[in-house]
Amino acid sequence: MPIRGSDVCLILVAIIFPPAAAAFITGCSCDLLINICLTILGYLPGHIHAFWLIYRRMKAEELYGHGGYTYLGNGNFHGGPAGHQVPVQAPYQQQGYGAT
Question: How much is the pTM?
């Protein structure tokens, strides 16, 4: 796994202030709130969470290429161009169930 200059910068930011690194990766999401809470509860858990997010981002870059992925939340990335929506399938519905 090659380490890019942006990854080194994120690691340095995560060492200084973990929520900032989480914000750079996830934007304003639940992962940012989780990282803020973990940093308040203890400085080390915030670091671990930030480094985990950086690791997941590095794996997504390795798998999908630089910029070829979209952040879905909870440390998950989806391959494809930014803004590409995954088609959502309707849940299976039994025939004759409920009002018709």
Answer: 0.72
Residues whose CB falls within 8 Å of the CB of residue 10, separated by 6 or more in sequence, listed in order: 21, 24, 25, 54, 57
What is the pLDDT tens value at each position of the chain, 100 positions in all?
677 888 899 999 999 999 999 999 888 888 999 999 999 998 899 999 999 999 888 888 888 777 777 777 777 777 765 544 444 444 555 555 555 5
Q: Is 72 left (phi over 0), alpha (psi -120 to 50) or beta?
A: alpha
> How far apart are the C-alpha atoms of 42 and 64, rounded to whole Å?
34
Strand stretches in 11-67, DSSP E: none
